Amino acid sequence: MRLGEWVRSVRGAIAFILLASSTCAQFPPNQKLSAEDEHEFTKELKRLQTLLSTANDRGAIELQIANTYAAGGQFSEALRWLRKVVAANLGFDPSRDPDFAKLQPTAEFKSIVDEVRRQTPPVHNSRLITTLGTRDVRPESIAFDVRRKAFLLGNAARSELVECSLRGDCHNFVMPKAGERGYVLGIKIDSARGEVWATNNTPSAASLRCYDLETGQLQRNASIQGKHVFNDLAISSTGTVYVSDTAEGSVYQLPSRTTALQRMAPQHKFRAANGIAISANGTLLYVSTWGDGIDVIDLPSGAVMPMIHPRDVCLAFIDGLYAIQGSLIAIQNGPMLPRIVELGLSKSQRQILAMKVLERRNQAFDGITTGVIVRNNLYYVANPQTDKERDADLRPLQVFSVRIDR
Predict the structure, then answer these.
(1) pLDDT band for position 406 (cuts 50, 70, 90)
(2) Cβ contact 331:353 at 8 Å
(3) Edge-to-edge strands of the sheet including 352-360?
(4) Which CATH code, of 3.40.50.360, 1.25.40.390, 2.120.10.30, 1.10.530.10, is assigned to 126-403?
(5) What pLDDT score does 23 carry?
(6) Nearest one of 229, 241, 171 to 200, comparing CA atoms
(7) Of 191, 250, 267, 399, whose CB count within 10 A is highest?
(8) The whole model's pTM is what?
């Protein structure tokens, strides 16, 4: 390189460095905590360190440690743990996390976000099925009536079920009762019995409600008083309904033709129980424990064990969970970059052997939560927008389909 060219290149490099320094904030100094805050901060770190020794998904706990350091204003330690988490390439995305707000403008944090983008390129296998003609429904859940070729949506804003055709035409299927302060999370159709089941939650109780699939008339109601949040549900071939209780960290079952809920494995804590599914052979119940992977209940014995999986596969932050022959399909969100994955199972169906990303970085994603398996496809609402409070802020709901190769 000639001298003049070298000088120009150095000047260009200096200009680039100055530009970068002007657009990145200085790394914030660690904050001094009060005695009371220091006590709570240390207590939480000890709790997480204890969990780390037995965690099913260590990466999820390590991320929580990074969050705790950031929330406590110990930014250098937060960055150290965050780098460790990102280096494991598990799919976490800290760019939207408010705990890291003071780090986001810094060059150090931006380099981490750049690495996440490099690790998680877009994966597009979905196609748009329909745009629904309703703007006041926030569907945490979706079901599909194969006979009528219609979707059923639960409303996370009130005790309501909505039916929509494949063309996108929608009408009320179940209306909330006068004065009822509830909301719907999980919903499943039992085609063999002509029923649709939905969870319903109020500030003082949670219930499983069964409606006639043709008329929407209430057939059965099983409720439990107290601070419970019935989240997702699964229905066995014999008609037993299983439901996850996020608030209590438990799982309940409702045998066919009864209204008495029975708590399963009461000695076990299913932390923030969420997605739930029954194995293809009907002997296992899979329960997403949100921040720590999947627990497996052996239905004949009632024994609970963590799902075995490779260290480079993270099972935390699963919302929707579905079992098909040979695989689990999972929708992950929260601190995870929102994605749909297929988890290949062993012959015992108690171990995950590999993971395949089916959809990631879909521009339509806005709060993706759950879906429904229809033959070899997963139908899902890409933008349920459950975090939006005003109806005026809602965009039309889009239903996508992603094929599951068999």
Answers:
(1) confident
(2) no
(3) 318-324, 327-332, 339-345, 352-360
(4) 2.120.10.30
(5) 62
(6) 229
(7) 399
(8) 0.92
